[in-house]
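pipeline: protein-struct stage 2 | run 1193 | Inositol-1-monophosphatase
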Amino acid sequence: MSTNLHPMLNVAIKAARAAGAVINRAALDVENVRVAQKQVNDFVTEVDQASERIIIETLLGAYPQHGILAEESGSEYGNKNSDHIWIIDPLDGTTNFIHGFPVYCVSIALSYKGKIEHAVVYDPSRNDLFTATRGRGAFLNERRIRVSKRTQLKDCLVSTGFPFRPGDNLRHYLRMFADVTERVAGVRRPGSAALDLAYVAAGFTDGFFETGLSSWDIAAGSLLVTEAGGLVGNFTGEADFLEQRELLAGNPRAYGQLVGILGKYSKFAGVDDKMGVQAALKQDTAGEGAQEA
């Protein structure tokens, strides 16, 4: 552990690496990993659970009075009344993992009185460690990282996540996806929101947007982005995003332009914008019907 880092960040790194070791061992024989389905297209494995256990044990071993908010066990462990809450996704990208597709990570963030103070995103398959502490910058493997400097959306590479749960409005998303795709150099869908945000922070991509995300998907990654000089918010550009289930991140210039495209699709959009989107969706549906006829 580094003596230059905040002690709480060092403990989070220790927890993330321990979880990563569990994941890497399981990845050697992924076909024998037991998989359960929480709901359609939403999976949990024994590896998620084992990874979460070792993270919680490590964190509470060092800070027994802290609280825990974890994807699989919720607030079952730790002190629910603590000002310090560890927000944990033990294996972000489970669907990728169970298919042997090596894009997944461990995500750990520490919230103090509602603000994210420390963040770790660890990619065990590449041994890439992204870290950040509020006010101290963001790092990849101890090297300082910054968001990209691209200023024109037509030159930007943007990542996203497709809706996959029952009840998600796929048609609404596809129109939003088309609006972005037409204006950028490329769109990617890696399948791990925490890594998507880490890649924005490192300048590998210029922006990221997705709906339906939970706080454990984005808590650590959001601090990485802001500490790397980027912006994070909802689709209308408001910074209060952690519990809103829509997220946009990017370098400052890309972010501003993406707000201009995505704002009308936000659940916080004005009535006129929402009516315009609905009219466009109806037009799409009518067009598809005419083609089929």
